[in-house]
Design a protein that fits this description.
Blueprint: H1 17-47, H2 54-79, H3 87-101, H4 106-129, H5 135-153, E1 161-162, H6 171-174, E2 176-177, E3 180-181, H7 182-200, H8 202-212, H9 214-219, H10 224-250, E4 252-253, H11 261-271, H12 283-303, H13 310-334
Helix pairs in contact: 1-12, 1-13, 2-7, 2-10, 2-11, 2-12, 3-4, 3-5, 3-10, 4-5, 4-10, 7-8, 8-10, 11-12, 12-13
Length: 335
């Protein structure tokens, strides 16, 4: 370069239109759900007098808590580039085991479902990470196994286990701290810990590296198999914990609960900005995604004239739009 000439910025460097587009695309991909959530909440508050009331907001928070726990575990699985279709059935199984265990004490009600659901996650993780089988097939088998075990324990759903009156186990989700249900506080703590694990530990860095490029992560000497196994164990444990919370809240173990929850959890994770291919996403985004789904359901209930089945139609349409937008934004970011 001769004296007096001005160096032009290299393609893609900061300040160029290309880099600006990439930054905007990244911002929309990660924060778009939050913007939609805020707009939806403000619009609903203006349109419906009962939406912004303390009672309704509390109801939304409680209803969110059960799916949020399951979606947190799904987040780590998807970030590795995997999927867990078993969480809905594991959630229901955890609830039934917790209700049955509560008849033998609160400690049994907590430990039994965690042990069984964690074991299901461990077996799935081992088969996927060590056996090399596709997560879709393995967790689909896990779904069938958990649902079959659930039906066997309840005589095809004809037996409903009740939490004894006065049991301390009921306080786990029904009790309140500062006017807020314990189940909501559980979610706050779990997501805070999940955020720290993902962004402040070597495990979280490995999860993102595996989702970004598994072969490269393996060549770097990262513990790929072990990280995947832990992710599926975590998913099983959190699905079981979600079942424990719903059993405590409803004071019973209901076999039909959890049907389709795996799809809701996946939708919440994707709505929150986590790529289905893995490697990019946040736990806070997942929480936003769960809240957005629940706000949509609540608004449809507020309308009243719409059938509840429209919840699935609206949620599915938004999910399809978000996935399409994610794909487009990812292309823009790479340019």
């Amino acid at each position: 370069m001769t004296a007096g000439t001005i160096a032009e910025p290299a393609p893609g460097t900061a300040g160029t239109p290309r880099s600006t587009r990439a930054r905007i695309a990244r911002l929309v991909q990660r924060q778009g759900a939050l913007v939609i959530l805020v707009l939806a909440a403000l619009s609903a508050t203006a349109a419906f007098d009962s939406f912004g009331t303390q009672r309704n907001v509390t109801s939304i928070a409680v209803q969110v808590s059960f799916l949020a726990v399951v979606a947190l575990g799904m987040t780590f699985v998807i970030l590795t580039g995997g999927i867990d279709l078993s969480v809905g059935s594991v959630f229901a199984l955890g609830g039934v085991l917790a209700a049955w265990g509560s008849q033998h004490g609160a400690l049994v009600a907590l430990l039994l479902p965690l042990a069984v659901c964690g074991a299901i996650g461990l077996v799935q993780g081992l088969i996927i990470a060590r056996g090399g089988l596709p997560p879709f097939i393995v967790t689909l088998a896990g779904l069938l196994f958990a649902r079959g075990l659930l039906l066997a324990l309840t005589d095809e759903g004809s037996t409903t286990y009740k939490v004894p009156a006065g049991s301390a186990f009921r306080e786990l989700a029904q009790g309140k701290l500062l006017g807020v249900n314990h189940s909501v506080w559980v979610v706050v703590v779990l997501f805070a810990v999940g955020g720290l694990v993902l962004h402040r530990t070597s495990y979280g860095s490995t999860v993102l590296a595996i989702g970004g490029q598994e072969d490269a992560a393996d060549l770097m000497g990262l513990p790929v198999a072990r990280t995947k196994i832990v992710a599926y164990v975590m998913s099983g444990l959190l699905a079981g914990l979600g079942g424990i919370l719903i059993a405590s809240y409803t004071s019973s173990g209901v076999t039909i609960l959890g049907a389709g929850m795996e799809l809701e959890a996946i939708a919440a994770v994707v709505l929150g900005g986590t790529l289905l291919t893995g490697g990019a996403g946040t736990v806070l985004g997942t929480l936003v995604g769960v809240l957005l789904l629940q706000v949509i359901k609540n608004v449809i209930n507020q309308v009243g004239s719409l059938d509840s089945n429209w919840q699935a139609v609206v949620s599915g349409s938004i999910l399809l739009l978000v996935v399409t937008l994610q794909r487009y934004l990812a292309r823009v970011e790479r340019r």
